[in-house]
Specification:
Number of strands: 3
Oligomer: single chain
InterPro entries: PQQD, PqqD_sf
Protein name: Lasso peptide biosynthesis PqqD family chaperone
Pfam family, one: PqqD
Number of helices: 3
Low-confidence stretches: none
Organism: Streptomyces echinatus
């Protein structure tokens, strides 16, 4: 996987498939958290605090991003 930070988030290239993925800033924060070795619940708590949203919503959002990245084989949960 190759990644590049942009003004709007991060662009990923899956080198095996040649497929590009674009993550918004929130998705990029989730990915960075995973790469830093953080657990999903810690990432969700940080997002809830940063954006002033309910923890349950942040947990759903983090889970959705992880599922998409995992489905594309860009991360291993």
């Amino acid at each position: 996987m190759i990644s590049t930070v942009t003004d709007d988030g991060t662009v990923l290239l899956n080198e095996r498939t040649g497929r590009y993925w674009q993550l918004n800033n929130t998705g990029a924060r989730v990915l960075q958290g995973l790469l830093d070795g953080r657990e999903a619940d810690g990432i969700a708590a940080a997002l809830a605090d940063r954006y002033g949203i309910a923890l349950q919503q942040a947990e759903r959002d983090v889970t959705a991003v992880i599922e998409r990245l995992s489905g594309a084989k860009l991360v291993i949960p």
